[in-house]
Amino acid sequence: MGKLDGRTVLITGAARGQGEQEARLFAAEGARVLLTDVLDGPGEALAKELGEERARYVRLDVREEADWAAAVAAAKDAFGKLDGLVNNAGILRFNELVNTPLEEFTEVVRVNQVGAFLGMRAVAPELAAAGGGTIVNTASYVALSGMAYVAAYAATKAAVVGMTRVAALELAARGIRVNAMCPGAVDTPMTNPALLDPDADPAQTAEAVDELYRKAVPLGRIGRPEEVARLALFLSCADSSYITGQPFVIDGGWLAGVQLF
Ligand SMILES: NC(=O)c1ccc[n+]([C@@H]2O[C@H](COP(=O)([O-])OP(=O)(O)OC[C@H]3O[C@@H](n4cnc5c(N)ncnc54)[C@H](O)[C@@H]3O)[C@@H](O)[C@H]2O)c1
């Protein structure tokens, strides 16, 4: 028996990174998953690998209201209902606050913050119609702590935590639980663009990443996307049945405090 037997979950940004691992784990736990992204090739390939019974792919740019309406319709068409959402899609831009162009700031807001808002707004009525469900938003540990050079990103992730609490309050009576994940550093193309570079030496890249996080993170390493997927599973299944409105830090202890040695 899977922890998500009988459930149908829409995952954004599911073509790679954490979204891909969430899709794989949710399907393995019995869910039918609607994979969505703007990376059509990898998204379609993953859906094909998971099989038509379990997974479908549709293009969904989380900034676009019309795409959300179409994706919700596609989920119901393919699987009959929708009772879970993982708002995972996101982008990261590094810049000093005083040098951040308005267009860059706005672009990060549109994907990370407006995208999560549109997702909850489009999907919540379907979850209510299905008799209840779960929403898992992906924030970041920088929603709870500062980090230089990520003003736009930190602002949007704090907003995601804020919206998570509001949505939890408003949707509880309809049987919908809403929580947020706050990952630290996780080994995906977002933090490690060398993963996408065919010319990069994988051994050299892995060594540089290991060296960086060995000292910074109490558990001594960068996180794996599979580990974040397991938190998303916990927050999407009955194991978390009495939990709503909370941000969950998953960071190897990075936010626990200052490390002197
Ligand atoms: N990797 C980390 O260290 C880390 C830490 C904290 C939070 N996060 C958050 O985790 C989530 C997943 O990131 P990841 O690490 O897997 O990175 P990633 O870059 O590998 O994956 C992000 C996915 O989002 C998709 N995406 C981007 N813009 C989109 C749009 N407009 N519409 C739909 N999809 C879009 C991308 O195509 C990609 O598949 C993000 O919200 C990110 O902010 C990541």
UniProtKB/TrEMBL annotation:
Enzyme superclass (EC): oxidoreductase
Presence of the UniProt keyword Oxidoreductase in the record: yes
PANTHER family for this protein: 3-OXOACYL-[ACYL-CARRIER-PROTEIN] REDUCTASE, SHORT-CHAIN DEHYDROGENASES/REDUCTASES FAMILY MEMBER
Assigned EC number: 1.1.1.47
MF terms in GO: glucose 1-dehydrogenase [NAD(P)+] activity
Protein name as annotated: Glucose 1-dehydrogenase
Annotated organism of origin: Streptomyces palmae
Similarity comment: Belongs to the short-chain dehydrogenases/reductases (SDR) family.
Gene3D superfamilies, per the entry: NAD(P)-binding Rossmann-like Domain (3.40.50.720)
Keyword Oxidoreductase: yes
Keywords tagged on the record: Oxidoreductase
UniProt-listed PROSITE patterns: ADH_SHORT
InterPro entries linked to this entry: NAD(P)-bd_dom_sf (IPR036291), Sc_DH/Rdtase_CS (IPR020904), SDR_fam (IPR002347)
